Amino acid sequence: MRRSIAFLYGLAAYALFFGSFAYAIGFVGDLFVPKSIDSGPASPTGAAALVDAALLALFALQHSGMARPAFKRWWTRLVPEPIERSTYVLLASSALLLLFALWRPLPAPVWHAEAPAAVAALWTLFALGWATVFFSTFMIGHADLFGLRQVWLHLRNRVRPPDHFRTPGLYRLVRHPIMMGFLIAFWATPFMTAGHLLFAVATTGYILLAVQLEERDLIAYYGERYRRYRREVRAFLPLPRRTPATRSAPEGEAGPEAEVAG
After folding, report:
1. With b meaning 16 or more CB within 10 Å and e meaning fewer, what string describes 57-70?
2. Where does the chain have alpha helices with state H?
3. Do residues 106 and 198 lie in contact, with contact meaning Cβ atoms separated by under 8 Å?
4. What secondary structure, in 3-state letters, does 140-166 show?
5. What is the mean pLDDT of residues 138-167?
6. In this predicted structure, what is the pLDDT of residue 243?
7. What residue segments make up the domains of the chain, in order of their start?
8. Are 17 and 93 in contact (CB under 8 A)?
């Protein structure tokens, strides 16, 4: 019974993630959702900026802080290991939904593309960014990343095998394709407002910092194999490799988006 409950808990956490991810597309793109990055009741500019910055900081602290190995060693004393990842996903999705609900718009325009070709190009990049995020999760193990595999193996009374080192798909071109997709999606818009710019700048800063923390953990875990991978493959830009390509990259742990999938 406990294994079945853990499995259902993992499914519920995944459902919440999927809903928050789908809503995020509409929120950032100001598309099809009741409350987006540029909609909602008006607030004084200073107060709105402070609220938005606090929401972004809360998400960043939860998302990155709970993924650190030291926190996990403590956390798994309280939360059973099979549902640790699902709990992380549940709390990260909840923090994201809180951000959507309490976000204050800052509607002052920063840029507004009007040429049809420019608008089409920016929306194409927006869609490409989100598609890159979604499909890259399958390259490193979608079920692992969002806790489904962990609760499924627990239900079957099987032990999750250790992570292996490989370069699937886009991970041969960039070390962090999920983060690359987010960066594209957050910046590609034909109508950039002050609120959207605050969101894009803050999330970009968070991504750059979180990548450094995650790669420190990956080096501690994989050692020279990850150091060699980092020398050979660039972080975000799919430019020619600086040295001959390795065929090694972490399965389930290829950037801050993966954190520690176990």
Report:
1. eebbebbbebbbee
2. 2-29, 45-65, 69-75, 84-102, 116-139, 142-145, 148-155, 177-187, 194-222, 224-232
3. yes
4. CCHHHHCCHHHHHHHHCCCCCCCCCEC
5. 88
6. 56
7. 2-232
8. yes
* Alpha carbons 115 and 122: distance in angstroms, whole number: 11
Say whether pTM exceeds 0.85. yes
Strand pairing class (109-112; 191-193): antiparallel
Residue 131 tokens, joined = 């598609």
Distance, CA of 222 to CA of 246 (rounded, Å): 14
Summary mean pLDDT of the chain: 89
- pLDDT at res. 145: 92
pLDDT(119) > 50: yes
SS3 234: strand
Token code pair at residue 15? 């459902």
Task: Name the token pair of 30.
Answer: 């100001």
Sign of CA dihedral 76, 82, 88, 94: negative
| C-alpha torsion 93→94→96→100, nearest 10 | 130
Give me the residues paired with residue 174 across strands.
Answer: 234
